[in-house]
Design a protein that fits this description.
8 strands, four-stranded antiparallel sheet, alpha+beta, 2 domains, about 475 residues, binds zinc ion
């Protein structure tokens, strides 16, 4: 009976992100949707194609020469491997080809080990070492072998996935940059796009170190997420790794599922897109464009997106002493961001909006800017918002209230959100936003003497300047 186990290779997905990206890269190269759809013949064909890509470098003298892409990448991905030995300069073209083919050859029955594959648990063939298993491929993020062991036992399809993951990455600046997610459909689409890009790039030489813009990698993930057509069901990971001799490194950042899905939703309608543009405009600094900083914050500290949006509005108020008109464009996005990303409870968001109506009612009793200034001042980081509410609660009792308004300015539930909640600062920023919006809707504008207006300007500047402080941390 013929033992077909050696030749009927099949790819399965494992808990290793790098193996998964590689599996989807193989699928993309074979033009199937899922790695499980790879037939043994298609698998053999695409592995052969990768080998041929490496063999094509045999005539190249230096990695920077045209056709040297995979030779250049090999120093970062597979140092000390058969494609880049120290005596490469002395090898003939044929010797180079033979060495590469020997390295990438399918194992035979004699290579079978009495050990399970470290990734998929199926029968392993050959011990693989650092050459084939980059840092980040193992669950423990180590690619060094324990003393007395020859390497890591792997099956041929899993090691082929590790050879393939660079196709599903962006290779530049001495790093492989990957987008991974446990959402298989999203991973299939983004990996497919990366494979197209890599194959285009490989037809040229390895790109020279073009200095990318700030947070370019995070921004690329944001673009991928926003371009995706279906609901994203899992977090999206950004992995940056190098396996080179000089520097082994792996850095992983995670974009939470709620913020990924929210970013995607900002393309749903024309209104949402206009709102997104207005939001992006609130996120930038002198050094970093708005969308790049939005991407960075979405990864690192999603609550800062709200802080910066409100801080930017306050800075604008300080510059013009007028209520910014884009607040109405921003409003639906700010509210959905609070609900979906910052997971603020719907009922609580409604509470803060109702509170903002009461506050705006008090502030707009006349058009003198003083009360508005005091409210803004109380909302800066060192401000006494608690004291402000204490004073204004008396006014609220003394003056006629709008019809249907609660007799208490700051009910106990609202008090808890603003002063006792873990996200107090976010609730306060939402309150400031909603108050400015309510004043804008009521058509209120501050009018006063030059000195009074300057005080508004200073208060808004102080409350908006908290952003700069946050940005430099
Ligand atoms: Zn395996």
């Amino acid at each position: 009976m013929t033992d077909t186990r050696q030749t009927e290779w099949s790819v399965v997905l494992t808990p290793s992100p790098l193996q998964r990206v590689g599996a989807f890269a193989l699928a993309a190269m074979a033009e199937v949707e899922h790695p499980e759809q790879l037939t043994p013949a298609a698998f053999t064909f695409v592995v052969e194609r990768m080998t041929n890509d490496l063999v094509a470098t045999r005539k190249v003298i230096k990695a920077a020469d045209p056709g040297g892409f995979w030779l250049g990448a090999s120093y970062m991905l597979w140092p000390n491997s058969k494609i880049n030995p120290t005596n490469r300069g002395k090898q003939s073209h044929q010797q180079r080809e033979d060495a590469i083919r020997e390295w990438r050859a399918a194992p035979g029955p004699e290579d079978r080990l009495d050990a399970p594959c470290a990734y998929c648990g199926r029968e392993a063939y050959t011990w693989f070492g650092k050459v084939d298993i980059p840092l980040g491929a193992s669950v423990a993020h180590r690619n060094t072998t324990a003393r007395g062991h020859q390497g890591t036992p792997l099956c041929y399809p899993c090691v082929a996935c590790l050879w393939a993951f660079p196709y599903g990455s962006t290779l530049s600046g001495g790093r492989a940059v990957l987008i991974h997610s446990w959402d298989d459909d999203f991973l299939a689409e983004t990996t497919g796009q990366a494979v197209d890009r890599t194959e285009r790039a490989a037809s040229l030489a390895m790109p020279k170190g073009v200095k990318p813009g700030p947070y370019a990698r995070e921004l690329a993930v944001l673009h991928a997420v926003r371009a995706y057509g279906r609901r994203i069901t899992a977090p999206v990971e950004l992995m940056v790794l190098s396996n080179s001799n000089k520097e082994q490194s792996l850095a992983t950042q995670e974009l939470g599922q709620p913020v990924a899905e929210w970013l995607r939703s900002t393309r749903r309608s024309g209104d949402a897109q206009a709102g997104y543009k207005a939001l992006v405009a609130t996120q930038g600094t002198k050094q970093v464009p708005g969308e790049a900083f939005l991407a960075k914050r979405a990864f690192a500290r999603p609550s800062q997106v709200l802080d910066f949006a409100v801080g930017h509005l306050l800075t604008q108020i300080s510059a013009t002493v007028r209520l910014p008109s884009e607040i109405h464009l921003l409003s639906p996005l700010i509210v959905s961001y609070c609900r979906e990303v910052l997971t603020m409870d719907d009922k609580d968001v409604e509470r803060i909006k109702a509170l903002a109506q009461r506050v705006a009612g008090l502030l707009s009793k006349d058009d003198r800017p003083g009360p508005f200034r005091d409210f803004i001042r109380a909302n800066s980081k060192g401000g006494n918002l608690h004291g402000w509410f204490r004073t204004k609660s008396v006014d609220w009792l003394l003056y006629p209230r709008p019809e249907g308004a609660t007799p208490t300015l700051l009910p106990v539930q609202d008090y808890r959100l603003l002063f006792e909640d873990d996200r107090s600062w976010s609730w306060r920023r939402l309150l400031v936003f909603a108050v400015i919006e309510a004043l804008g809707t009521a058509g209120w504008e501050p009018k006063g003497s030059k000195e009074e207006m300057q005080e508004v300007e200073e208060a808004a500047q102080a409350a908006g300047a908290d952003n700069e402080e946050e940005a430099t941390r």
